Amino acid sequence: MDNNNRDEVHNCVIKPRVNPQRRREKVYIGCGAGFGGDRPLAALKFLQRVKELNYLVLECLAERTLADRYQVMVSGGDGYDSRSVSSVDQFFRLDACALAFGCGKKNLHNYQHGLDPPGAQEKVLEIASNLGLSITVAVVLEVALENSGLGSSTKKSYIMEGGKSTYLGAAPIVECLEKYQPDVIITSRVADAALFLGPMGWNWDDTNQLAHGCLAGHLLECGCQLTGGYFMHPGDKYRDMSFQHLLDLSLPFAEVGFDGKVYLGKAEGSGGVLNFSTCAEQLLYEIGDPAAYITPDVVIDVREVSFQSLSRNKVLCTGAKASADSVPDKLLQVVPKWFQDCGWKGWGEISYGGYECVKRAKAAEFLVRSWMEEIIPGISNRILSYVIGLDSLKAARNDYDTSLWNASADIRLRMDGLFEQKEQAVQFSKEFTALYTNGPAGGGGISTGHKKDIILEKKLVRREHVFWRTGVKHNKKMNSNNQKVSIKEDLLENHALQEPVLLPMAQDHQSDFLSSDIDIFPAPSGQKIPLYSVAHGRTGDKGNDLNISIIPHFPPDIERLKIVITPELVKEVVSTLLNTSSFPDSDAIDKRDKWVAEHVKIKIYEVKGIHSLNILVQNILDGGVNCSRRIDRHGKTISDLILCQKVVLPP
């Protein structure tokens, strides 16, 4: 094997490329994974069905992934997610199948793999060798340059101090493609959209083409969320589809022309849906200000973006452009705060059923809080509680019926605390377990636990202070044609990619779903109606902020929605997320409302190209996914709770 090229280190200052080579007039690039827990089998089926693909991207790093991996690594474990790397075996089996059948390899796989890309590189090469594949694997690393005190000499390290990481742009991927022509690129932290931008071949001053390319990456990055996943909704005629249709989702791909034209697609004959509505939801997902969606390579203005369905499997995307300040001079860096207060989480759950089960849960909560206060005065304000099956999502409807409390007959109390010391989290678990002998009647199924939690601090770093390098390794050539035959037989016998066996359903919907086939009309005025009958949407999180989209089924209804969707309405709904108990008294509510008035900020943006609203709620997620005590750390369920609100539209 060749050694990694470790000599050239670059900073992130954007430098125009000299005579960039256009690799293709059109690039076909697909998403094989939208997060580390995505389904490898779906990607294998995708590769079988979409023969045009030139590149496949697997986006596997979430916000806290690197910090978690750093903890494992300093404890002697792998600096990459071995579960994710093991799925590479399944992807390479398809490449091996192509070779065995004489088809040749056709896809470059681009993976994000944590703190130790060289470690993942070795594992990928080992897997390929075992399958008889000859491959080239490149790596992209963020590196630290430290002055060694010997003149201009520096010490290079790819394990960033404390597990910090910076969102890199597409430049390192471009270098890998041009310098090594690899089969696989494995990266450390790279911005999601940039993973897709690298193969497109534009220069760094082609800002409007870059805007379209980054937009394509943003639309693809969450995988099947673009093609019907996280969209299907029984009871909503615009979003309903059969279970079988949802089972046969296709991952998405984009056809991107060198002129910047973008077509989105899914596999012919697949289930799911790709249309204006699915594209609009993904467009607004976690973007914040639509006039300035910031990526490391270009700042994008998506306010005039629109979508035109050309067929059931193809959508034209138009209207993206670079913002006035088209290139950010700073990059986002995430720094784990290992020794900051509130670093230990303790939790407990217990179930109650039958008559007055909610009141028994209330008694149990009172006892655990009181026991903790006896030992550590003032600790109760670090504890959050909720009742699963009643109010665990915390957001309330504006027509909420309190009689539902009396109707509940199967609930589960959960209490979460975020503490300064491990001993406090352990004590909390012990006190909760004492409900078995000291709590109200009929409680069962207690589970408790504690763990170290990581708080991530975000900051902006100037581009010239962020460094990266690339490297490459190769494995040995395939041994013989006999090896090809054995791979082929193994695939056919043990790893054949067959259509799933569908279980019979008692009731089914139309198997050929397309919401554009449904007649749409203006929503009625002058009467109280649920918002979901007027619009759909999705929520996403960025740190401690919540992003909510409101997309009307009948586009002209946006003018009336702009009147009724106000910061006051949104604040009324989301303020209950900050309740620390299912049973707040008046003092707790007053304290909550004062905090909301001081800290929670709401901005509502209009996105004219898709006739929609994008709502940004700041400081509402209990510190964000990394340390939140809520059952829904990301706030993903809030979209439907918003859509359940009753509104009266004007004429």
Please tell me what the overall shape is: globular
Distance between the amino and carboxyl termini: 72 Å
Q: Which structural class fits the helix and strand makeup?
A: alpha+beta
Quantity of strands, as a count = 29
Number of helices: 19
What is the overall pLDDT average?
A: 83
Strand content: 15-25%
What are the low-pLDDT stretches, counting only 5+ consecutive residues below 50?
A: 98-107, 147-156, 491-512
Radius of gyration: 26 Å
Largest sheet: 12 strands, mixed
Structure commentary:
This protein has 19 helices and 29 strands. With 651 residues, the chain is of the alpha+beta class. Strands 1, 2, 3, 4, 5, 6, 8, 9, 10, 13, 14 and 22 form a 12-stranded mixed sheet that branches. Strands 24, 25, 26, 27 and 28 form a 5-stranded antiparallel sheet that branches. A 4-stranded antiparallel sheet has the order 18-19-17-20, covered by helices on one side. Helix 1 packs parallel to helix 4 and helix 4 (88-100) crosses helix 15 (481-494). It is globular, with a radius of gyration of 26 Å.
Summary?
The chain contains 19 helices and 29 strands.
List descriptors.
651 residues, alpha+beta, 12-stranded mixed sheet, 5-stranded antiparallel sheet, 19 helices, 29 strands, globular
